[in-house]
Design brief:
Blueprint (H helix, E strand, L loop, with lengths): L12 H14 L3 H14 L2 H11 L12 H9 L3 H5 L1
Length: 86
């Protein structure tokens, strides 16, 4: 259950008219339009975040397992500049 809090934003005429027109054309309320806009701006697009997480699932499933994780990490940190110069 979500608790709703009341707020009173002050909107200029241009923004009010645009919201009112959009609310009428979509059959929704101005309050709902504001909630959707705030949610999208401050929480991000849930669908995009969900798709990004799903894209990560199984990303490494076809990669070989590491025999020695410590050695793998040390190899990542080794400097190869001398090898590239030679």
């Amino acid at each position: 259950m979500h608790i709703m809090h009341r707020t009173q934003p002050y909107l200029d005429d241009q923004l009010w008219d645009a919201l009112r027109a959009h609310a009428r054309s979509t059959g929704t309320s101005i309050s709902e339009l504001v909630r959707v806009a705030v949610r999208a701006h401050y929480l991000g697009n849930l669908e995009k975040r969900r798709n990004a997480m799903l894209a990560l699932v199984g990303l490494r499933k076809d990669r070989p397992k590491f025999q020695n994780v410590d050695e793998y990490v040390r190899d990542l940190g080794r400097d190869t500049r001398i090898d590239r110069i030679s």
